């Protein structure tokens, strides 16, 4: 009971001002202390949300009814804020689920955590900005007019408006520049005058009146300029964050976590070897043609052809093999037998390469049980250079070569065109998924591909007639694995909901003092 | 040998003369320095040369006008392209850490090429042009020039004949040079109306409401359409070309009025009246049918006449474009500025070739009257420069360089205006 009192007090905390509106421009970083576990949960869940934003944007027309509906469901499902007003009744602890205030706090904090993780490279920044913008566009559009206006006021977003006289003078042009405008609505509605560079989406589609380098934007389209503002601020902020990153990275608790966040896909990490020992070395050649994704098939072929793979290739392929169930002994035998057929003799292999394979299995060095690379990692980090065969063939191959390769694998010409179109649109994972569908002769893969080991698993599932489905589904989601194994002081047990809550309460208790 | 005859084989002999005595280096340097407002603007600009046998040299850069002059006189490039202003000197791009060498600014450029109109011109195809189809370039310039000035607020537009079959536009305003890739592509898309390739028949589709930009562009097209398309291109003269026009009409109108339409083809011989009757028949049908074909005549006119941009050239900051005053190796014509005040009179076949101007240089002087012209300047400029001025003034290149001068003067004036405004603002404090 006493806790309720404390909670109430907390809501009038100055920070509360920050959460007065369900949408914010993330101008102020959070200043409170939070537990490491909360830090991680927040980050992971926002990443999940952004990932959904990305997937929906690929599968549906952005801002279409279906898109908005699905995105709305995801936002509320992950307990991110979507209600315009703070529901007073939900502030009391008796209500099930987190309060609106807590959701807003989570929105705020999680955004800033991901900034840290996603400011490091150009690619990461671009991805992050794109998803955050799509999310913001949806959330802003979803607001009732009165909350939109309130949002503008609160964030001090003022744009030059046209005078009534000006509007009357240009009324014909204004009417003909946007949908659903008439003489009457023009008088009623505010029109904002901004440099055309700030409203490119409207300029591109010729949905706004332009004169002398200025775009005249009706209030109904104001999301465009707000979004432009949002993008400008975010990209500046990310550049600044990147500069101060070394300070954050020196924190040994956060550094592995942030790295993990920016590299790994949230979801199954395929490091748990349920199927360990289920694959024999003799099967690999056949499996590589049947069930390996193109990236691994390419690596396997390169290894068989040249009896060697460089470091990047060994990591990507070795961890994948570990993920499909090779034991350490099998892996050592596999790599040795191949390498000694080339320029490396057994002695040199044992000295120079065996270590790195044991290392991969967590038997050397800092004993990290490395997880197989996700698609995102393969696509975004460590691009292949001269002599490398790793990377994502859809991302890192010349389209013409990719085409030839697909032709040699007997894919239908129409299928190849579809794949190349996806590649052109930079939808590498979808291209791979299409490759899966074509090579397995199915209409719809029925999953969204984001991990080479997932590809393998799904393929095996399909080829063995779905016998293994149940077991696979049971594989627990274990996102924290990497950080935990790295010895960071993050709660190692996934089942810590209760502990987290207590920690949260404790934290707020201290904060209150 | 007639004066305008150009033989590509002579190019290697003519280029040294052109670069030594005629190429307007001082104006060129003045242009690309932009008043020296931004540090290293000229220094960090990429030039690329196409040498004999299509040897392509990228990432050339020069610190001074003199260096540029010396290098061009040494290399005698067949073609000169201008690229972006980079973060570092392009000639040293290999020495900086990868990723840090980046294209920062460039003029906003447009490239319109006659080959893109092949499906709508009957007079020529591919690289060929004639005075008939040149009207398409005139229309393109009128439409784009108006939009870039009125809609986007740009002032310093340099329109240049490419030397063969098209025109280029260099938008040189500071704001234009600073545009991001996204902004460039947005501008280019705003200006593009004709969409689709070989697999698309109907390439222009209008929808309600008609944007002011489209109405403005239409009014330009309407001015040229009857004379150019109906009379000049015989749009409705042969069965084949009529069929092509009819294929742009909506299905239902076509079904219902095919008879009427073919009838009019037999009874009416005057192309202008045929067009009127075609419109009348379709409008009549439109009244009875519910939707579609509302803007059919506008769409046809636009498909046949609206400028077709090479959007990719405009989008990229680092995209190269053939430089003004570069020679076109195939035609020998100099890439010269186009005078918009006399746009309708511009004739690409009158543009001087390198052989013509080199020949003019060799001719004995017609009179000494030009002497007076340069007299007052003699005290200011050094003798070498003065001789060069006298050189080009004796050729047909003179009027184009004068135009270029006027363009540069206008830019200098508005730069000065900007600076005055800025210092006025400062005085208020």
Automatic annotation (TrEMBL), chain A:
Compositional bias of kind Polar residues: 488-498
Cofactor(s) listed: [4Fe-4S] cluster
Biased composition (Acidic residues): 499-513
GO biological process terms on file: DNA replication initiation; DNA replication, synthesis of primer
GO MF, one annotated term: metal ion binding
Domain of life: Eukaryota
Keyword Iron-sulfur: yes
A Pfam family annotated for this UniProt entry: DNA_primase_lrg_N
Classification via InterPro entries: DNA_primase_C, DNA_primase_lsu_euk, DNA_primase_lsu_euk/arc
Role played: Regulatory subunit of the DNA primase complex and component of the DNA polymerase alpha complex (also known as the alpha DNA polymerase-primase complex) which play an essential role in the initiation of DNA synthesis. The primase subunit of the polymerase alpha complex initiates DNA synthesis by oligomerising short RNA primers on both leading and lagging strands.
Protein family per UniProt: Belongs to the eukaryotic-type primase large subunit family.
Quaternary assembly: Heterodimer of a catalytic subunit PRIM1 and a regulatory subunit PRIM2, also known as the DNA primase complex. Interacts via (C-terminus) with PRIM1. Component of the alpha DNA polymerase complex (also known as the alpha DNA polymerase-primase complex) consisting of four subunits: the catalytic subunit POLA1, the regulatory subunit POLA2, and the primase complex subunits PRIM1 and PRIM2 respectively. Within the complex, POLA1 directly interacts with PRIM2.
UniProt-recorded name of the protein: DNA primase large subunit
Native source species: Pygocentrus nattereri
From TrEMBL, chain B:
UniProt entry tagged with the keyword Metal-binding: yes
Enzyme Commission number(s): 2.7.7.-
Annotated InterPro entries: DNA_primase_S, DNA_primase_ssu_euk/arc
UniProt region (Disordered), positions on chain: 365-390
Keyword Transcription: yes
Any Pfam family: DNA_primase_S
Compositionally biased region (Basic and acidic residues): 374-390
Source domain of life: Eukaryota
Keywords attached to this entry: DNA replication, DNA-directed RNA polymerase, Metal-binding, Nucleotidyltransferase, Primosome, Transcription, Transferase, Zinc
Cofactors that this protein relies on: Mg(2+); Mn(2+)
Any one Gene Ontology molecular-function term assigned to this protein's record: metal ion binding
Catalytic reactions on record: ssDNA + n NTP = ssDNA/pppN(pN)n-1 hybrid + (n-1) diphosphate
Leading EC class: transferase
GO BP terms in the entry: DNA replication initiation; DNA replication, synthesis of primer
Gene Ontology cellular component list: alpha DNA polymerase:primase complex
Family, as annotated: Belongs to the eukaryotic-type primase small subunit family.
Identification of the protein by name: DNA primase
């Amino acid at each position: 009971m006493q806790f309720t009192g404390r909670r109430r007090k907390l809501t009038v905390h100055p920070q509360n001002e920050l959460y007065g509106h369900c949408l914010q421009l993330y101008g102020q970083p959070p200043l409170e202390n939070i537990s490491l576990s909360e830090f991680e949960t927040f980050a992971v869940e926002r990443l999940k949300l952004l990932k959904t934003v990305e997937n929906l944007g690929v599968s549906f027309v952005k801002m279409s009814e279906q898109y908005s509906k699905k995105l709305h469901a995801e936002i509320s499902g992950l307990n991110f804020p979507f209600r315009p007003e703070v529901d007073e009744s939900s502030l009391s602890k008796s209500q099930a689920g987190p309060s609106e205030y807590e959701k807003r706090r989570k929105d705020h904090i999680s955004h800033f955590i991901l900034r840290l993780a996603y400011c490091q490279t150009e690619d990461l920044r671009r991805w992050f900005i794109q998803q955050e913008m799509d999310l913001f566009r949806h959330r802003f559009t979803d607001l009732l007019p009165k909350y939109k206006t309130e949002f503008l006021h609160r964030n001090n977003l003022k744009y030059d408006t046209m005078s009534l006289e000006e509007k009357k003078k240009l009324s014909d042009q204004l009417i003909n520049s946007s949908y659903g405008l008439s003489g009457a609505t023009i008088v009623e509605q505010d029109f904002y005058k901004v440099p055309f560079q700030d409203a490119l989406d409207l300029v591109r589609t010729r949905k706004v009146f332009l004169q002398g380098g200025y775009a005249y934007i009706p209030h109904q389209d104001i999301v465009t300029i707000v979004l432009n503002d949002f993008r400008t601020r975010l990209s500046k902020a990310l550049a600044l964050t990147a500069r101060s990153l070394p300070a954050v990275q020196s924190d040994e608790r956060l550094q592995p976590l942030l790295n993990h966040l920016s590299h790994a896909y949230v979801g199954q990490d395929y490091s748990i070897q349920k199927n360990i020992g289920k694959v024999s070395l003799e099967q690999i050649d056949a499996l590589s043609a049947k069930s390996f994704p193109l990236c691994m098939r390419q690596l396997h072929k390169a290894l068989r052809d040249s009896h060697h793979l460089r470091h990047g290739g060994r990591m990507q392929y070795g961890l994948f093999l570990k993920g499909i169930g090779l034991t350490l002994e099998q892996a050592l035998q596999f790599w040795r037998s191949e390498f000694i057929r080339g320029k490396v003799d057994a002695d040199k292999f044992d000295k120079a390469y065996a270590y790195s394979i044991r290392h991969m299995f967590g038997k050397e060095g800092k004993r990290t049980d490395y997880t197989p690379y996700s698609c995102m990692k393969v696509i975004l980090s460590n691009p292949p250079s001269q002599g490398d065969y790793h990377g994502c063939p859809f991302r890192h191959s010349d389209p013409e070569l990719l085409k030839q390769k697909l032709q040699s694998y007997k894919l239908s010409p129409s299928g190849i065109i579809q794949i190349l179109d996806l590649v052109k649109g930079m939808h590498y994972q979808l291209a791979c998924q299409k490759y899966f569908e074509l090579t397995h002769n199915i209409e719809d893969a029925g999953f969204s591909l984001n991990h080479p080991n997932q590809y393998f698993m799904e393929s095996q599932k399909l080829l063995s007639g779905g016998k293994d489905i149940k077991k696979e589904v049971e594989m627990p989601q274990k996102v924290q694995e990497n950080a935990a194994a790295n010895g960071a002081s993050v709660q190692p047990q996934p089942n810590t909901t209760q502990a987290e809550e207590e920690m949260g309460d404790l934290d707020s208790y201290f904060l209150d003092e | 040998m007639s004066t305008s005859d150009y033989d590509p084989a002579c190019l290697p002999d003519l280029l040294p003369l052109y670069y030594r005595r005629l190429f307007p280096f001082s104006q060129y340097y003045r242009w690309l320095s932009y008043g020296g407002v931004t540090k290293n603007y000229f220094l960090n600009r990429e030039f690329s040369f196409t040498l004999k046998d299509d040897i392509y040299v990228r990432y050339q850069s020069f610190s001074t006008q003199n260096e540029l002059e010396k290098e061009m006189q040494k290399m005698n490039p067949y073609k000169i392209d201008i690229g972006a202003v980079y973060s570092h000197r392009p000639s040293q791009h290999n020495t900086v850490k990868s990723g840090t060498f980046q294209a920062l600014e460039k003029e906003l450029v447009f490239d319109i090429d006659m080959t893109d109109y092949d499906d709508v011109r009957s007079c020529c195809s591919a690289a060929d042009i004639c005075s008939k189809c040149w009207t398409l370039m005139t229309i393109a310039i009128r439409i784009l020039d108006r939009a870039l000035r009125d809609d986007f607020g740009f002032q310093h537009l340099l329109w240049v004949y490419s030397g063969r079959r098209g025109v280029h536009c260099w938008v040189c305003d500071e704001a234009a040079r600073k545009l991001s890739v996204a902004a460039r592509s947005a501008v280019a898309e705003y200006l593009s109306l004709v969409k689709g390739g070989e697999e698309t028949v109907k390439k222009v589709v209008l929808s309600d409401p008609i944007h002011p930009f489209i109405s403005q562009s239409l009014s330009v097209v309407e001015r040229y359409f009857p004379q150019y398309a109906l009379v000049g291109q015989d749009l409705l003269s042969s069965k084949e070309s009529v069929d092509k026009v009819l294929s742009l009409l909506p299905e239902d109108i076509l079904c219902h009025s095919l008879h009427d339409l073919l009838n009019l083809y037999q009874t009416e011989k005057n192309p202008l009246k045929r067009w009127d009757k075609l419109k009348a028949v379709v409008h009549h049908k439109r009244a009875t049918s519910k939707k579609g074909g509302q803007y059919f005549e506008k769409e046809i006119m636009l498909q046949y006449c609206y400028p077709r941009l090479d959007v990719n050239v405009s989008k990229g900051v680092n995209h190269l474009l053939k430089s003004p005053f570069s020679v076109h190796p195939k035609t020998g014509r100099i890439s010269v500025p186009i005078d918009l005040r006399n746009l309708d009179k511009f004739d690409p076949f009158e543009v001087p070739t390198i052989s013509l101007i080199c020949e003019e240089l060799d001719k004995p002087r017609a009179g000494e009257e030009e002497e007076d012209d340069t007299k007052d300047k003699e005290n200011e400029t050094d003798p070498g420069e003065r001789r060069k001025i006298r050189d080009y003034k004796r050729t047909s290149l003179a009027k184009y360089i004068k135009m270029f001068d006027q363009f540069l003067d206008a830019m200098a004036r508005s730069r000065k205006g900007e600076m005055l405004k800025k210092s006025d603002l400062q005085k208020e404090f």
